[in-house]
Write a structure and sequence with these properties.
mainly alpha
Length: 113
Amino acid sequence: MNRFQFVADHARRFGVKRLRQVLGIARSSFYYWCRTAPLRAARQAADAQLAAKIREVHRDSDGTYGVPRITAELCGNGQQVNHKRVARLMRSIGLAGLRLRKRHRTTSRTRLR
């Protein structure tokens, strides 16, 4: 729960002004947060739908596709999406692409006997 939500939940009992002063929240910030609540809810709903599509593409690729390929697949299907958003959603739902390359070793340690 963030500070703004706390103020909104307890405003009837203690008053917005008092809670804002105690928590150190600017008046304009609190009312901006209240005004943008529907936009945040819409963005969360859109992210949930996109996450479902990302899961589907990832499952169809047998878990091998990463952010660039999933982004290309979604753009190819007519979904306009940025690779940064795909990366953020994949991190949040715990998906990752498969890395097939071995780690490249640049130096070798020598043992002294």
